Amino acid sequence: MGSFACVFGDLERSPEDIPGFAALWQAAAPDTAFDAMGCGTFRTMSGPVEKYVVESVRQTLEGHAVRPEDVTHLVLATSDACLRTLGRDCAVTVLDALGMTRCVPVVLSFQQCCSSLAALRYGWELFSDEDVRNVVLVSLDFTPDDGDRVKSFALFGDAVASCLISRDAGGPLRLASATVKVDHSGLMGRDSFVSRQKVAQAAFAKVFQESGERLDDVTRVFPTNLFQPVTLFNATIAGVPRDKLHFADTLRAYGHCGNSDWMINLVDHVEAVGMRTGEKYLAQASAPGFFACGLLVAT
């Protein structure tokens, strides 16, 4: 697994560029200072989302010199709100633009920001079929209406991220284990400290039991880029040491890019310090009603 690519919206903006930002923030989080949230700028897409998906997948394929016609599956993951905005010809447009003539498209959603980790496990499991050679995983999230970007838990930006899972091309990472757990109370809008902690601990327990590893052995954790106080609080209730988190710089530059965040954070970490064989990374995502994580091992 490797050849990660991130393509952000082409317009760089500040929160104050959002029409009526002050009123939106006051309505979302009354009497809370936005300056303490850890945000700086964010990106928005000026064109159709297919354009950004095509560019991200193109970079991913070039990273391992994989021919488009040798990709057997394209697994798209997106949050629920974005799913309804995708045109019915979105997958066809992407496949045709890239020349992926033998590729089966799949879309996975309904798990909010946890969708891409569910898609990662799904993509990995496709290799139980010996005919599957190359799978491209794509996460995408964008917010067409500026009025929806400002929430009490995050400032939304637009991005696409992708990576290659390959039987032939190899890559610097392998997936040791991944899972998504559900918090029914959260789905109903009745989540609590206890329910959020319980679902996080259940996800961690499954991933570490399946992989035979421990949280203490993890080099870095790549979480969802919620506001900094929220991200740190979520890490605390899940038992993740703050010094293992890598998200602050990407939050400041791009905001919360939905289910693409863990890949964006991973790429940023690797570009900054690289990776060493044997290092272990925990991709983590949280959303109302869900908690997901995946353990990646550098090979």
TrEMBL record:
InterPro entries membership: Thiolase-like
Name this polypeptide is given: Uncharacterized protein
Organism: Streptomyces rameus
